[in-house]
Write a structure and sequence with these properties.
The chain has helices at 5-38, 41-56, 62-85. It is built from 3 helices and no strands.
Length: 87
């Protein structure tokens, strides 16, 4: 166990941040799965917003957010092009 007062405080802070970050990451995973299942534009915009917010708060790395957004956009646009091609 920590002895110094400042170390105890840092431990409390890191536990609190860890819980918050896990919650945000879990929410991201849920939204990504939702977009992959529905391939809906509205869900995509919501997910992109959530990813940008998480990257801004440094919960996830900005490149990770960009990679996930890119994959989702590609997936949704493929679906849109398939729908447009079917007569």
């Amino acid at each position: 166990m920590p002895v110094h007062k400042s170390v105890k405080k840092r431990l409390r802070q890191s536990k609190k941040a860890n819980i918050q970050n896990r919650s945000i990451k879990s929410e991201i995973k849920t939204f990504v799965k939702k977009v992959e299942a529905s391939l809906d534009e509205k869900d995509l915009k919501e997910t992109i917003s959530l990813l940008d917010k998480a990257a801004r708060k440094r919960v996830i790395h900005k490149n990770q957010a960009a990679r996930i957004k890119s994959r989702l956009i590609k997936l949704v646009s493929q679906k849109a092009s398939e729908v447009a091609q079917t007569p």
